[in-house]
Amino acid sequence: MKQVIACIDGVARTPGICDYAIWAAGRLDADLDFLHVTEQAPDYLPLAELTGNVWLSAQETLFSDLADLERQRDELLQEQGRQCLQMAMERARSLGAARIAARQRQGNLLDILLEIEPDTRLFVLGHHEHPVKASRLLPGHRLEAAVRGLHRPIMVAGAVFKEPLNFMMAYDGSPTADKTADMVSRSPLLAGLPAHLVMVGHASAAAQAALERTRAQLTQAGFDVQAVRVPGEPAAALADYAGEHGIDLLVMGAYGHARIRHLMLGSTTTAILGQLRMPLLILR
């Protein structure tokens, strides 16, 4: 049976990731696996490599000291990971989850996620905890790499769990949007939740027809659907709509038509996540 993978990588984010993953595993009737990956920070040289900057006569002692520090750092990171996983497992048990497991790995997060992707139904990750750099397309290089590299659905969990009682799908009439709607119509994760189908900006007659067709498709699949068009730019319009209607989850496709592609990979997504920090489900 394919599993839900909850990527635990920070104490502050652990409760939200844990709770959204438990909710998703329950809705999907899937096993839940907590994963902690220790990575070498890319912005820094390993301590042992700094020995090349000192005179040969001093290298032996300094190398030994730096090796000890590097080993201690690795041990601390491993211990932090064990504690995060233990916290997640205890929280999952307290909330009634039974089919749970935990694993700890070292290496590149994306490489490890790609390795386990064939046995995965959904990845659950958290928002980045630090300010977003201007060069980043998404809040955190790990999240951006996962969105670009993986082919399984990804849920970006909120910091504090709120059970999704509805969802909003950004729709533009493109083939990718239609594919996303088809996946939504068959998804046990979203089954039974009220749906808001939102098209942003001016719509042609063809786009309006596509919106109505998709509304009918989701209605036939058993969803209570509100299909609306709203003016403005995608980020601000979707954020305003979500706030006004109490939206709990934003559902999007990863690639496609220019507007949706910009929405997914450009500054618009960063703006939505930065403004609302709302949970996001990315369907592939």
Quick one: how many beta strands? 10
Q: What's the shape?
A: elongated
Q: Approximately how much helix is present in the residues?
A: 40-55%
Number of helical segments with 4 or more residues: 9
Q: What is the N-to-C order of secondary-structure elements (H for helix, E for strand)?
A: EHEHEHEHEEHEHEHEHHE
Low-confidence stretches: 130-139, 256-267
Distance between the termini: 19 Å
Name the average pLDDT.
80
Biggest sheet descriptor: 10 strands, mixed
What Rg, in angstroms, do the CA atoms define?
Answer: 22 Å
Strand content: 15-25%
SS class: alpha/beta
In the sheet with the most strands, the strands line up as 3-2-1-4-5-10-9-6-7-8
What does this structure look like?
This protein has 284 residues and is an alpha/beta fold. The chain is built from nine helices and ten strands. Strands 3-2-1-4-5-10-9-6-7-8 form a ten-stranded mixed β-sheet, with helices on both faces. Strand 1 (3-7), helix 1 and strand 2 (31-38) form a beta-alpha-beta unit. Helix 1 packs across helix 2, helix 3 (109-116) packs parallel to helix 4 (141-149) and helix 7 runs parallel beside helix 9. Residues 130-139 and 256-267 have low confidence and may be disordered.
Summarize the structure.
By secondary structure, the chain is of the alpha/beta class. Helix content is 45%, strand content 19%.
